[in-house]
Amino acid sequence: MTPLPLLGGISAEQFLKEYWQKKPLLIRNALPRFQSVISPEELAGLACEDHVSSRLVSDKDNKWSLRNGPFTAKDFQKLPKQHWTLLVQDCDAHVPAVEALLKHFSFLPAWRIDDIMISFAAPGGSVGPHVDQYDVFLLQAQGQRRWQISQTIPAADNFLPDSALRILKEFHPDEEWVVNPGDLLYLPPGIPHYGVAVDACMTYSVGFRAPAHADLLTDFVDQLAPRLEDSIRYSDTDLALHANPGEITQEDLARFRQIFLSYLSDEASFSEWLGRFVTRPKYAESPYANPVIQKSEFQKQLLQGAGLLRLPYARLAFSLQPQNIHLFANDEVQLLPTSMGDIIKLLCNQRNYPQRSLKPFLSDNASLDLLYRLYAANLIGFIED
Ligand SMILES: [Mn+2]
Questions:
Q1: What CATH number is given for 5-208 in this structure?
Q2: What is the three-class DSSP state of 317?
Q3: What is the CATH class of 295-382?
Q4: Ligand 1 centroid from CA 131, angstroms
Q5: How far is the CA of 206 from the centre of ligand 1 (A)?
Q6: pLDDT in the model for residue 385
Q7: What is the pTM of this model?
Q8: Residue 264 DSSP symbol
């Protein structure tokens, strides 16, 4: 039960037991002397790029309006001095220094993380009181923001009409804090919250994934169905005489239910589906491309002392199976022998692989092959000095 400075000195175990998905936690000075790793100008620059998802919210006189990016430099020049917010999604994928912050959250499963969204707000700026469906850690990165939260679960009709922002019509705060750079506010799903920029401020939102059941079911079936032969059919060789020919009996229901259960209880294929689902990249194309080199050259650089790192678009996870290990990398699965457990854990648990951590594996051909495959797929790259 190691106390974590990020959690204000409580242990990860205690956090999971008392707060995770249960109640908010404000941690003052979670990251002492923290400074934003990106400037407001750089954030605006990102919001001008085609492949980046961004929004501008104006909240003049409590009238909210939303525009989606990409934006132009002109859009930013036209903005007033107050009451607007720029939000940029997936900054961890776009900026390696932002991705590096994820190491602070290694007390949670990496595959639960969705993205780091960064917002810049002019003084007074806000996206309004609202509720999110997922867990979020709000790290103050620059300036001050006033957060208010409410413990009252909002009614279904408590939303302003015609607003893509889903702003709460009524919001009665019962707690309020003004946060400073380095402060961290954890909010579980469903807690109404309202943040207002005291001065020009930046906030990093480390958001977690909570897939809708609808999406999980659809995805599972979409993955499975194309692999099933048309000749695999319903059958009822045990059909008994129905007292009512119009009735669907319990036996009929059980036969159909068993079809579904048989696919769910195939452990290997269920693991394969889930691992691919949680490592699926949001962006089809990664902008990170390694120089094309032969395996011998790759090996030579490692033996000469080079280190590796995970590239920002890469999502890695593994699952221990009775016979082997499933290694998932961006929606693909590799079935690897149990003997490769150590290097698989290193790759999936860490994001940086300095030479000293790789050394035990460099004399093993299977490990080298794996590293080279991940390198060739632009999932890992060399650490640049
Ligand atoms: Mn929110």
A1: 2.60.120.650
A2: strand
A3: alpha beta
A4: 6
A5: 10
A6: 66
A7: 0.92
A8: H
